[in-house]
Amino acid sequence: MTWSKALKDTVRTGLTIERTRLTPLVALRGACGVAIVIGLLLWLGSPELAVSSAFGAFASGLATFQRSWRPRPVLALAVAVGLGVSTFLGYVAAADPLVFAVLLTVWTLLAGMAWAVGPVSGLVATQTVAVMLVTVTLPTSVAGALEHAGLIAFGGLVQAALIVLLPIRPWGAQRDALADALAAEADYARRLRHDPVARFDPQPLMDAREAAELTPRQARSRPRQLGGPRGVAERIRPVLASLADPVLGAPAEGPERDRVRDLLAASGAVLDAVARAIRWGRPVRLPPEAVAALEVPETPILQGAARRSALRLIALLGDAVEATDEPVTTAASPDRPEPPEHRHLLRPSVPRLVPVGLRALRREARWSSPVGRHAVRVAAVALAGYALGSALPFGHTYWAPMTSVMVMRPDFGQTYSRGVARFAGTVVGVLVAGALMATTRPGAWVSAGLAVVCIGLMYLLMRTGYSVASACIAAYVVFLLGIAGEGWSQTVQERVALTLLGGVLAMAAYALFPSWETPRLRDRLADWARANGRYTLAVLGAFARPAERKPRRVREALLDSRAARTAWEDAAARALTEPVRHRGISRSAERAAEAALATMGRATMLMEAHLPDRGADPDPGAEAFATALEAALPAAVQAVRDRQALDWSGPRAALDAWRERAGDEGVAIRGTELLMDALHELETALSPGPRGRNRAARRP
Prior knowledge:
Helices cover 72% and strands 1% of the residues.
């Protein structure tokens, strides 16, 4: 992609306004927190104190809107602590510009590294940098530093208290995640009726698993309705795929296929009903026609593996309905512990999260890491913006570095699109707010009310686009400064000019010191191939030695495969926005390799749906093929990285020998044939040059 095309795409993305579900009650609660802080300090203190302390309530409320599974009061309190510490340090160092510059650089570097822990941590750390920049405009003393740090933290305490006192749809995020996973499987079942090899995006299942991770405190109050259906949903997906597959399931046409279509339609209806019940905390209401379709006929229509899949599917759907119909508001009591399928996944508490974060920081503290490069980049830009803002003849010089810090992200697309959105939204916000200030000339209390309205609109509309949120924030700042008697015309000019400067610095920094994702595409692809291979080996090991099979090993390998696939898809999406080309893999080869690895994962999943019991006989063919695949996998993964030809001759010979001994019957051997076809497609897609590609295409 050329630079001109990349810039056009980022401008379009930054100015896009999306339709999304709004949460007016949650937005109103967040705005009330800001109103309480501004009103109390305007009444008991001074306009300057009200203006400076409003940032704490605003930033703490903003953090509670992020996609995090931790309790919202905990997020608000964590932001309050971070803002209080950064405020205190900023006040103490603000008297000496050189000392403050050093502190700002180090603090921004650490805030940039916080993205290694997760996006919510990165956002919170970014907010602490912003409040540190704001403090340089206020009087400095140790006592004043402590006072203002306490006022900033007070805003977070108010937001946390409101969340506790005014709960709005408790466990709503977890309910939505689990319901979305079940709804995605319902849609998958309906698509399988018309496309037996339809693809399924595992992201909803991954989100549901992440939402199911609980701290011990959360586990004591989690509704029982959220305990069981997720595990059932994980087991339903491979059964749906195996039932619909024309190789391992029912024939492509005939009475068996008609029966499969009826079962898939009924499964979609049942899963949708379960999803609705979980989302709103209500009993399950099943459509009568779906219940009738799931009844086992007296005369079996399906045969063999398809019949086993159908019976398994009916049983799993019954488990999902039964788990959802349990009490929705009572958690497990000590004398009645949750059954194994309802036990929660452990999420570390905030103190135990510290070593996890330190390990993440050590992992990303390297020159080649996108997070590490982002930290260096954002620290340099913050320092440059602070120096330039101080040199220019404007007030509020912190707006330039604050804009840079707020828009910069570890990837190109988000940084540039947010830079465009920030500037466009700021222009609109300051012009509208400035015009209103010029025509009405409101007093301090009216300005405070208008500021609260703007922040409420920001909370309400923030998910529609960053440009809309930026417009609301810009208007909020104009009205907020109006409380202290700032001239609106000067505020508008300064804000627009310094926002433009900060955005230009952020974009220039990424162009001069990039961390492109495109050159790493082959590494991401190799990681996915290796994870898929381990998943396949875990499943084949269960066929080879049923008495020794370990479901946990298969499960962990599946999760690793999903994580590698998600990492690849994220990297490929970011690479599409970058103005660089990968000389080692074309877009067509990239898509073909992605399809091949997705097929490889699907073939393994189909075999997983038919794992033998522990008492089944060992399969020597499966063991021989697994041994050959395990021997060939490391070299193949390295070949993907080094742009070399892949060699699957060992697994291919093992499959041929397996066919000679056992024929083409059996779930394992038919699934392995599908797997070998996927490996051949991967070999063809990544063959180095036309000669290698043609040579791979001629192989049987």
